[in-house]
Amino acid sequence: MESKKDFLIFVDGACKGNPGPAGVGSIVFKGGKIFAVLSKFIGEATNNIAEYTAIKEILMKIGPLLREKEEVTLLLMCDSELIVKQLKGEYKTKNDVLKRLCATVTKTLNHYKSWNIKAIPRSENRIADALATSAVDNAIRALQSK
User: Fold this and answer.
1) Are 15 and 43 in contact (CB under 8 A)?
2) Which residues 6+ apart lie within 8 Å of 124 measured at CB?
3) 68 lies in which domain range?
4) What pLDDT band is residue 146 in, cutting at 50, 70 and 90?
């Protein structure tokens, strides 16, 4: 049963090229209602960096809005099996940049009562994907119009 302290978070990163212009997107639900939305251009990045950055950025956004993190449960939904398995400790993180991002995200998540991350198909992550992709597309259009 979902309580008032449970948050469902869908995250995604998008790149035009790998590496290439990248964006992050996330939507957070609390009690079945939208709690927070994130759509942000992050510059040049790889797909994996964008995925980790999506998690980091949404945690930074919602963190100040939550008074008692030690009572909050988070369930993250991500369509990157690699990121999910690295955060769960099932895969080693070899790349130095990803290692740092994984450590930062894990440290932040450990401030909460509990957290879990689940790999989902892309088809179940359409909103976060659209938010990430639109951030990239909007930034590219803005640069091209200059």
Assistant:
1) no
2) 77, 79
3) 6-144
4) confident
